[in-house]
Amino acid sequence: MPAVDFQYFAEVYLLLKMKISVVVPVFNHVHLTQRCLPSLVEGAHQAHQLVIIDNHSTDNTPEYLREFKKKAELKGWSVIIVTNEKNLGVGAAFNQGIKNSTGDFIALLNNDTWLMPNWDSSLLLATETLGGAMIAPYYDETPFDEKQIPLKAQQFIQRNYAKHSHDWAAILMFFRRDTFEKVGVFDERYFVGYEDRDLQERMDRAGLKYYKTGSCFIWHHSKGTRDSANLPSGYEQDSLQKFISKWGFDPRPLENTKFQKYRRKWIRFKNKFGYF
Description:
- By secondary structure, the chain is of the alpha/beta class.
- The protein has a single domain (17-272), classed as Spore Coat Polysaccharide Biosynthesis Protein SpsA, Chain A.
- It has 11 helices and 9 strands.
- The protein has helices at residues 6-17, 30-43, 61-74, 90-100, 119-130, 148-160, 178-183, 195-206, 235-247, 252-255, 258-272; strands at residues 20-26, 47-54, 78-83, 105-109, 113-115, 134-140, 164-165, 172-176, 210-220.
- Strands 1, 2, 3, 4, 5, 6, 7, 8 and 9 form a 9-stranded mixed beta sheet that branches.
- Helix 2 runs parallel beside helix 3.
- The longest helix is centred in the last third of the chain and has 15 residues, at 258-272.
- It is globular.
- The model has no long low-confidence stretch (mean pLDDT 92).
């Protein structure tokens, strides 16, 4: 009779006890939120808490969120809705969500997304396996098809499960809670843009690792949440100047070397055929 690996089962048990909170800032574009939140809740296995930050939406987002909260709570979710009297920006919204969350792990998510089934357990397992402070999933930005995207996700996972790269992605960021204790939360001086690059810089300097995994697939509407006439003009350039003033360098040349351009082309080529 083979020996029972009690340590393995103990590790699995501890993993299953880990609690996951999800933070989703929203600002108008209710049609995107209506696709994101159901996929988040229906596809989750371990996530138990959802914190939604309504950054002063002026469409029917508030009404939808109230109805969604009722339905999600019937399924056992804890749902907190924080309503801001003005748009505070994405970094401040993330910080509100982190403050109001209680999970051992925190997923920070854009609302212009669709998530595959079992997305949360996949990210949790990848985080524990790799030992990183943050992990991000692969994301697809082809036109959304409600029948084809789930099939595409399934095929992608079959091909790329357990593959990973040392990359940063800010569409869905899955953090260990103690990461924020080590490097701090988001710098709220950035309204939109470079708030995640600022956090990445602090993690780099603290020696904290982050990865992108092929074990989780999500769909993303590129810049869907930024497509709004209500955002301040010149916000991206303003955020860039704040980053340069704070850190003393312009990050753009580092991202546009010949090597990085070639690497991005190679990644796009692989992604086109469903490979991580």
